[in-house]
């Protein structure tokens, strides 16, 4: 039996990213504890820990090699010398625990803060909207676009929201969002066509004709290779003009 999971690569990355960050933090904490136990200098131990936090796949193997080399080079000649060296160079037990605990608290708190801010950011909402759209979850896409607009009133995001609303049949809501996006400076040359299509759906042919005419005057239709939608808009305008002529 073959199991298929309806999950995109982006969604999979978002799922594993918190786990990867936490694992990197735990590895970093372990490196700090280990480096202090093996009598690395304080700043060297912290350097190894930070390196493991940011580049775990590179730094952790290098640290293990460095620790092995240090152990080989510091083998005492006899047990008495080892005991005296350990006794004289080992930090106090309370300090040995306090520094790694403080480091762990700071690192884990920063990771939690970063994940929270990233999840609540505009880019985070837009990324989840794109993932939901790819997965066919139109309701989730609309919710994420609206959440992004609460944080940043962006005309392009409004246009994307309007397109999703139109696809669900909410033509009035889509028209409102498109008008607002146009008013706020959305530069998409297809805006007039989108608005005209919605006006047709709302049975407002006169207003739709004006928008089709505006669309025909845009760069999309005046360039040498016009968009295929221009011919349909032209037919629509000509039909409206013919109907308005006196017989």
What's the pLDDT, averaged over the residues?
Answer: 85
Q: Write down the secondary-structure element order.
A: HHHHHHHHHHHHH
Coarse morphology: rod-shaped
Largest sheet: none
Beta-strand percentage?
under 5%
Say which CATH homologous superfamily of the domain at 153-244 is assigned: Tetratricopeptide repeat domain
Distance between the termini: 71 Å
Question: What's the total helix number?
Answer: 13
Helix content class: over 70%
- Specify Rg, calculated over alpha carbons: 31 Å
The structure class reads mainly alpha
CATH class of the domain at 153-244: Mainly Alpha
Strand segment count: 0
* CATH fold descriptor of the domain at 153-244: Serine Threonine Protein Phosphatase 5, Tetratricopeptide repeat
Query: In CATH terms, what is the architecture of the domain at 153-244?
Result: Alpha Horseshoe
- Contiguous uncertain segments of 5+ residues: 1-5, 77-89
